[in-house]
Amino acid sequence: MILLTVLKGVIKMNMNKRKILIIGAGGIGSMLIHNLDRLGLYDITVYDDDKVEYKNIFYQHYESAHIGLNKAKAIKKQFTDVKAEPYLVLVPKQLKGYDLVICCADNLDVRRLLYRQGTGDNATVKWLDLRAQGRNAVLISYLFPPELVDTVLKGEEGSFSCQAQDWDGSPQQVDMMNNVIAAMGGQWIQKWFNGQETEASMVISI
Question: What is the pTM of this model?
Fold first, then answer.
C-alpha cells in the first residue's frame, strides 16, 4: 500500500513537470541543467551539436571522460532524465511544445530565431536568453521592450565562448560569469513558474 502511494506520487509529479528546452550545453547551459535537474520539477530537453573539448573541463559541467563526446549526449550521461538532441536549432518548429525555451548558446542566428517568436503578450514562445562573456553577463526575457530588440541582436556572426576573447585556455584565467548567469537564470525560471514578478532584463559585471 505504501509503495503504491509512493508510485502514484511519482507518476503525478512527472505529469506535472514543466517542459523546458535548453539550447546549448556549454558554459551556461550545462550549469543551468545541473541546477534545475536536481529539483525534479522540470522535463528538460537540451539541443547542442558541439563536442566536449579539453578546455571545456575548466568551466563546464564535464569531466575528462566526456572529451570527444557530443555535449548533449554527455549531459544525458550525467542527468539521465534529460532528453538529449545532438543537433542545431534551425527552425521555429523546434521551439514549439515547451512551457519555456532558454537560449544558452552564444550564437546570433539562434537568438534571432528566438526573438522572432515575439515579445511580451505577442510572444508565441516564452523565452529566456542567457549570455556571458568574460566578466560580464546578461539576462534578457520575452518581456523585453520590443522597440529595443534590435539593440541586443547586434554583434559578430558565428559562435563564441563565454570566456573572454583573449582567454589563453588556462584555468588561471577562467572567468566564472557562466556560473553566475546560470544561477540567475535558474532563479528567474523558478520565480516565473511560481507566478512571481520577473525581470525583463538584467546586466551584471564583476
Answer: 0.91
